[in-house]
Design a protein that fits this description.
Family (chains A, B): Belongs to the glycosyl hydrolase 65 family.
Strand content of chain A: 15-25%
CATH superfamily of one domain in chain A: Glycoside hydrolase, family 65, N-terminal domain
InterPro entries (chains A, B): 6-hairpin_glycosidase_sf, 6hp_glycosidase-like_sf, Gal_mutarotase_sf_dom, GH65_N, Glyco_hydro_65_M, Glyco_hydro_65_N, Malt_Pase/Glycosyl_Hdrlase
CATH class of one domain in chain A: Mainly Beta
Radius of gyration of chain A: 25 Å
Largest interface: A-B, 48 and 48 residues
Oligomer: homodimer
Number of helices of chain A: 16
GO molecular function (chains A, B): carbohydrate binding; glycosyltransferase activity; hydrolase activity, hydrolyzing O-glycosyl compounds
Protein name (chains A, B): Alpha,alpha-trehalose phosphorylase
Mean pLDDT of chain A: 95
Organism (chains A, B): Pilibacter termitis
Low-confidence stretches of chain A: none
Number of strands of chain A: 31
Helix content of chain A: 25-40%
CATH architecture of one domain in chain A: Distorted Sandwich
């Protein structure tokens, strides 16, 4: 693999320890390990995670009410596998002199080299090679080499997994919520206190004390194993495992790689994003893809709609097996979604806004439970999966998800003179809450209902119910301002005062940290794409989309990391090439350059998927039209070519866009 | 005083211990004592309170955000002054055989008689006379008589104030929130831990052990003194104090009594309500009137808009000195209101929704801080006070309240094509939240602005600002549905689905305990009068009011105790005599009959004021028109006459309504 697959410290914008821990983190969908220093410094945040391994605690409300989420679910920060205790003669204090990191994204292996210095100027070099195995997802493996550079002496080594003690209090920034849980640690397993989850483990500890001459080294291999089921007794062979890792990553890139010619940094950003998408996605049908993947504690390891609307397109088009397992997770939590709908007084199923175990854990319903669109987002992803993969077999096993969500919409909405309306919802834009007829929500619910009707007719079941679903979908109200010729984000949005952007200094962003929600909700101001996200999915024609873009984009703070990628896609399609380029660029390098200044809490997974959307839905103009996958060359002039592959009903397709071939027409590919 | 001023156990609907503790509680605006049993039984909730004596604790949110209220403020449950330790020979277990209570509301004195029986059938009678002194508000005084009825023996008595230890956890029902705080108790004072409040005390303890023959008795007097400032050393004379109490209550009734002929129970209900209004109102300008007065811990002893809109009319018209001190409280917390407006990003002052110390302590902003109307409610009360009392001197010292609230409205609202709009507010109806242009709020804000303009012109200050206030008031948008000829509660209310009352069984009320707020907000359903409350204050003509009444009343659950009284007033005015009678009746006996089944947490003070409104604003049709007080006889046929007095600019006026004199015309009285 060439240099473009190597990530080094030169490639990242911020060299803060926690930032590096996130960006160079290794994960395999089951476990994730932050790339912390071998000898801890202040301000480090070492640790590892297991997907879906969480602790619960009661949510305390200042004022409680019926139907509020009852328990926090918090992904547990597990062991620090990377800390080493070192002693040179009698000295155990070291200063970091140099650090080199090389993440070989092509092979899924991290190489590190450190030089540490004692107060007596003794220099010791540490080399670590490590990977989170994709062959055996229980395994995180390390190979260490420790060598004196300018002395001979006794080197003592103690390398053990260290349990991270809970030491963080809940933070006020709702995006962070770092926390770790007290674990009961037994000989072969750890157990959470409240949620009763069990994790089996087997760790290779290493201890030695040796006289080492210059030119000699201490080397050892460690395989850390963790599993939700008892571990097999088979001994891990590091080299065999590493070989398999490379093969798996080669296979991954052979389908999922994207070659964008014209900007080396952005090319690296793309691969960095795809690498993390592949690394953190749950593979077992019981776990999903948390907002920060397995790279950090932000958002407590919860799964959101991010999976369906930002991540799944990438997986559906290039790694359908992963897509299937992520959708299988939703099928598995359907019973919880039915309970939740019932608790709220509705029929069918309502998937919860943020969750690990399927129960609602959003403690602020206006920007949580009220985002009912998650139901339709999930339905949309099932439909896209079926259309692109042709995997009707899986759909036939999961079609209850579509029926139950359709039932919910039918019961939740009501008929008025204007049509079928959905009230008191929050759309994707979280700076506008509890509104009537959010455009995105209504369009998505309509699609949800139609898809359920299609399945019901196809499988000849619930046919009578399906008549009502179709009637509601046909009658679904969508708001439009005839005078302004604008799509209405919701019934009241265009009636509001516009946010006073000119009176808002830079340091007051993101608004959510500096203004009361009541104030934010009062104005025309968006956190993220809302109407335009709907347009990305359900095109309304270039002229309409332009008008809406021109209206809504300037009102958008992009305070959410889920925003720019979507505006970029639409900008491509409506011919706003400069904006498309700019938004794509920011999406491609968001974490690499730490533009949101919080990559220390973990990657922005949804944006990474958004980066793929920017390239494929945006620059390449991909649309699914019936049985066809259709493209349109929107490649910005900054790039000479774009080359990518995707799978359509099991067949690999390759698309190459160049400036020469740039025309105005669509071109199909199936 | 005649029998109608005596409240006995026969008069109350529920004989539960906690209910009796509330109904027979004694208070003097400074301190309040629940009428608990002398020998505690399970399920009792004894205790005393001092107005505005509170403890703070951090509010924990499941998900915190900028500008949320930071601290709970909780009125502290203080000493149990009523428990006695009794020993007859060696026996200290007693069974209550009989209980008589007689609250002489005419004199402000409670008489009680208990017979307790030992397992050996020894009967002992306990008589207690007690009052919360209105002459010296530091004093709660008791006189005890203990006599053996059927034996002679040694009677041991230990009568001491007992500190109530914190033993309650926060409850989920937002209306309760009982709690008590750990106190640091020194020799002469107690101190709260977090809020650092100090209360000085001097208690007469009593201990004795005597041989008592049948026909003899043990008697003693106890004066419990508490004060926020060091106590004077003057010894309290029980009889002198009791004499003064009777004079003060005579004076009170001479102005504030209302004689309603035709229904003895309702007559008693009225006096019961007026008695508690007089008892619990703060008198020192630094305290106010909590939602449950000084009779219970419900709503944590917080002050709400209840004072201004439900209680102050009674005080303004009959006890203007008390009215002034309640308004003085608002003037005193104005600096906190300015800080709050600033924190939320607005100019001027925003009074907090619920508070003791002036800081916001509502932990649920959609039904708390968002009820901005409290600003205008306060302004309205200041205006009414000035109009009725003519006390311009007080107003001139408090007019900043009006200017600062006007400044807030001007900054909060904005001009649109439709006029001056107020968005993202919650009106009085808490089953509809975060809406645009709540009719009540806009009307009240308009009035607030106009009154500020009037004062500014009168005092020739802020005259330029006042031009903008007037402009906004003139342009204030008020919503009206031209087709339905209905006043719109807010921009979207009439667009909503109607609540499915037919599918809501009785046990699902109050809705707030059985449905998620998101669900409740979605429907046309009211907790309490909203548009109709505005109509009570700003009449819109009988025809319009009838249409609005016919539309909104059937959508109202009256889950709030603040609802029925208001509908009753409007029903009177629009000639719905039967409804006026029914609503008034429920208002008159709400606590006496415990119709809301929670009088155990304390009286419903606002409803007690609402009872006065039902009589005077409703049956007697009182309106203030310029310099005149105007009446209209709406006396329901169930009553033969209604007689009451009020003060207009210092002069006592008497009004008598009878069925004979019932005409359609207004009659003045000034």
């Amino acid at each position: 693999m060439n240099k473009e697959f190597q990530l080094t410290l030169d490639d990242v914008g911020s060299n803060g320890n926690q930032n590096i821990e996130t960006l160079f983190a290794l994960a395999n969908g089951f476990l994730g390990v932050r790339a912390s220093l071998p000898i801890a410094e202040e301000g480090c945040n070492a640790g590892s995670f297991v997907n879906g391994f969480y602790e619960t605690s009661d949510i305390t409300y200042g004022e409680n009410a019926y139907g509020y989420a009852k328990q926090h679910q918090t992904m547990v920060k597990l062991f620090d596998f990377r800390t080493i205790e070192l002693k040179i003669n009698d000295c155990d204090k070291f200063t970091l002199s140099s650090r080199q990191m090389n993440l070989d994204m092509g092979k899924g292996v991290l190489q590190e080299k450190y030089v540490y210095t004692t107060s007596l100027n003794q220099e010791v070099q540490i080399e670590i090679e490590s990977f989170a195995s994709h062959k055996n997802r229980s395994v995180y493996a390390q190979k260490w080499r420790i060598m004196p550079l300018n002395f001979s002496g006794t080197i003592g080594v103690n390398k053990q997994a260290v349990h991270i003690q809970p030491n963080k209090v809940r933070e006020d920034d709702p995006r962070k919520k770092e926390s770790s849980a007290a674990l009961q640690i037994d000989e072969e397993k750890v157990q959470t206190k409240n949620s009763g989850q069990i994790l089996y483990y087997r760790f290779d500890d290493y201890q030695s004390e040796k006289l080492v001459e210059i030119g000699e080294e201490i080397s050892f291999v460690q395989c850390y194993e963790m599993s939700k089921t008892p571990l097999s007794s088979i001994k891990i062979d590091y080299e065999v495992m590493k070989e398999a890792q490379q093969t798996i990553f080669q296979d991954f890139w052979s389908i999922s790689d994207i070659e964008l010619e014209g900007n080396v940094q952005l090319q690296k950003g793309i691969r960095f994003n795809l690498f993390h998408l592949f690394s953190s996605a749950g593979r077992d049908g019981k776990t999903n893809f948390s907002a920060k993947g397995l790279t950090g504690e932000g958002y407590e390891g919860h799964y959101f709609w991010d999976t369906e609307m930002y991540l799944l397109p990438f997986f559906i088009f290039t790694q359908p097996e992963i897509a299937k397992s992520l959708l299988q997770y939703r099928r598995n939590i359907l019973p919880k979604a039915k309970e939740r709908a019932s608790e709220l007084g509705y029929k069918g199923a309502l998937f919860t806004w943020r969750t690990i175990n399927g129960e609602e854990t959003s403690a602020y319903y206006p920007a949580g439970t009220a985002q009912l669109h998650i139901n339709a987002d999930i339905a949309y992803a099932f439909e896209l999966y079926e259309k692109v993969t042709g995997d009707t077999k899986f759909l036939s096993s999961a079609k209850d998800v579509l029926y139950e969500t359709a039932r919910f919409w039918l019961d939740y909405g009501f008929y008025s003179k204007r049509g079928f309306e959905l009230h008191e919802v929050t759309g994707p834009d979280e700076y506008t809450a509890l509104v009537n007829n959010n455009y995105y929500t209504n369009q998505m619910a309509k699609n949800n209902l139609y898809y359920a009707v299609k399945l019901a007719n196809q499988y000849q079941e619930y046919v009578e119910e399906a008549v009502d679903w179709k009637k509601a979908a046909d009658a679904m109200f969508v708001g439009y301002d005839e005078e302004k010729k604008l799509t209405k984000q919701d019934d009241s949005f265009l009636e509001k005062e516009k946010w006073h952007f000119e009176q808002t200094p830079k340091e007051k962003y993101p608004l959510l940290l500096h203004y009361h929600p009541m104030k934010i909700y009062k104005y025309q101001v968006l956190k993220q794409a809302d109407v335009l996200l709907a347009h990305m999915l359900f095109p309304r024609g270039v002229e309409q989309e332009k008008r809406d873009f021109d209206y809504y984009e300037p009102l958008t703070t992009h305070d959410s990391s889920l925003s720019k990628a979507i505006y970029g896609v639409v900008a491509s399609r409506i011919g706003y090439e400069k904006k498309a380029y700019d938004f794509f660029k920011e999406s491609a390098i968001m974490d690499l350059e730490d533009t949101h200044e919080n990559a220390n809490h973990g990657i922005h997974a949804a944006n990474m998927g958004g980066c793929w959307l920017g390239l494929i839905y945006g620059f390449a103009g991909l649309r699914v039209e019936g049985e066809e996958i259709v493209f349109h060359n929107h490649l910005p002039k900054e790039f000479t070519s774009l080359k990518f592959r995707y799978l359509h009903k099991g067949n690999v397709q390759e698309v190459v866009l160049t400036q020469d071939e740039k025309t105005n027409g669509d071109f199909g590919s199936s």
